[in-house]
Amino acid sequence: MDDALIIELFKKQDTAAIKEAEIKYGKLLYKLAYGVLCSKEEAEEVVNDTFLAAWNSIKNSPPDNLSAYLCKITRNLALKKYRYNKAEKRNSEYIISLNELEDVFSSSEAPDDILLSSELREFIFSFIKTLPDEKRRIFLQRYWFFASVSEISSFFGISESKVKILLFRTRKKLKEYLEKEGYDV
Question: Rounded to the nearest 10 degrees, how much is the dihedral formed by the CA atoms of 102, 165, 130, 93?
Answer without folding.
Answer: -50
